[in-house]
Amino acid sequence: MKFPTLATPVQLGSLTLKNRVVMASLTRNRASPGGIPNDLMALYYSQRSTAGLILSEGIFIEEIGGEWLNAPGIFTPAQIKGWQKVTNAVHENNSLIFAQIWHIGRVAHPHHQAGRPNVAPSAVKAEGGKFRLLEGAPGYVTPTPIEDPSHYVEMYRQAARAAKEAGFDGVELHAANGYLPHQFLESHSNKRRDAWGGSVENRSRFVLEIIKAFIAEWGDSKRVGIKLTPAGGYNDMGDSEEDARKQYTYLIQELDKLDIGYIQLSQGFPHPRANNLVVLDEFRPLIKNALVFNNAGLTGEVAEDQVNGKGVQGGPIHAAVFGRAYIGNPNLPEVLQTGAEVKNSDYTLYYDTADDLSRGYTDY
User: Catalytic one among 44, 140, 156, 179?
Assistant: First the structure.
């Protein structure tokens, strides 16, 4: 066995992860019309039940005009029923799955949502970005400020309730990568002057209220996780190092007080807008109660070192999150442990496969 610590179980509250290899959330755009999970998706996730924990692809909490028109939702009975197929398949293969709960806010496009405006904490447009399925591939548009953020907190609460009904083992708030919760956190995208903006504490409120709602719905704080990208770099996100350090120091300490299951720290994407924080080194020392998952383009060697505390400030990570490697290697833990070649996957088939949705999806 090449990486013995990665192969050991780890406790996430009352749940036992059979190993420390976590499958990252990966948008694959394979849902049926209406955002309904289907049999093909159930097969895809069952194939990858080699992971100690699967983090589902992002799941929309309302009808949203994102770039991915076949991304799944969890706001209709048919969607919930579809997810039950997926969770049953994962459980039959002795793994666990958390639902990543997703709203993209200002990086939606009104033309993809029947003219309804996209929303955000403030009327601040993200720069860059292309909606390649729309004529002329337009970029982002200026969003409409959310009048009452508590309405969206309630929407997230309903999604957490639906995830429980769908058979998930827990929920993860996607508060990274420039999506709606992330937009509330950063000073350049949140210009509000009410209780939801301004100070570090106020900008954290939206995320913390959602996490509290998740805990209330599940009745177990350990069934709740969160993904964060403090360095930014995607969807025009990234505060200065000083501002990000203050914001995320406060937020992570408050999250840890809530005794949630895990905090997934992602280094994010290299981009001129990103700051230079080394996310794991900066924030790992603050986390005392939650498990720490690291998502940073890891190799097996680096992951094994980190779960043993080597090269990590403030203590070891508890599990390593692997993304694209899981697309082409459904049996990734075995591949890592035997030293077999980690196969590349075909990027051109990640999202669009025309008439055969299984290509580049369930045929690895």
Answer: 179
